[in-house]
Amino acid sequence: MGDVASWWKEKKEAEARRRKERAYEASMENLAEARISPRYHPPRPWRSKEEQLMIRRLALQWWTCRGSKPSCRAWAREKLGVSHVWLLRLFRKFEADPDEVQRLQAYGNPTLEELRRAKECTQRMRDRGELRLRSPRRRVPPAIKQFVRERLAQGWSRSRLARELLLSLDRRTVKRILQKV
Prior knowledge:
The protein contains nine helices and no strands. The chain has helices at about 1-35, 50-65, 70-80, 85-95, 100-105, 110-125, 140-155, 160-165, 170-180.
């Protein structure tokens, strides 16, 4: 009886592995198809090139620092404003690529003032719409908020307002708008 149970378990595990492989292959095919589409555009970066470079330089400085230093988590969150997991990934890249380390060291010692200026550059780019927004949710444009307020003031019902908004927006966005009003 034990042989049948182990055989059945192995069969189910093999099926699960094949299903997972097929799902991965299908997602890679979908991604390749999307990339060749004329509507495809690569995602915008999270921060400016200057800030990326400063974060790498400061991470390298922390990584090569001897003596007492703050924890990786504290350094990442408080000083750099990034995830400590991302810093750990950077450290693995530093270990794997000594040329990158030399290139970053050639810039000299970074300062927090340089990081502040780089963050200002990032903020200007974000204000111009050149970078991703920090929030994963899309912001509702002020014109739509104003439209909703005006229609509610005129006595429109939420269902009528929802029908009107669904003509131009997706369902999730309409739901979020109506919840906030």
